[in-house]
Amino acid sequence: MKPRTKRAVAIVGGLAALGVAAALVLNAFQSNLVFFFTPTQVAKKEVPLDRNFRVGGLVEGGTVVRHKDALNVSFKITDGAESVPVTYTGILPDLFKEGKGVVAEGRVGTDGVFKASQVLAKHDENYMPPEAAEALKQAGHPMAKENFAGQGGGNPR
User: What's the pTM?
Assistant: First the structure.
């Protein structure tokens, strides 16, 4: 093989390897990407049905039902305009309470119920995810304080 041909084969092989590596990295990035939606967006079916996403808002008062085995819990998350029924199997965070902020990660089932694989409770009275705060503000909810939106990680102690 001529040196020119060897060089061309090496360049094409290198570009092919680079392309495969880039495709693998992008695929891994996309499979780990989790979007945030409000209960209104979930109710309007503006969410992906084939992948996990997060929904956040307030735990609606009077909707928390702990089932007999104590690990299955159902409740509703609201943004003041719409509510989403949620089921979760596992231990809830200590800060989980009715009327408090929560973010759940999971999927919507064919029955319209959000099946959470993880539930995160609000960890500080001065923090709420900006998207959830904005949704509550648009719905005119009394929990939508101006100081919620845009604040980071809470109170450093």
Answer: 0.64
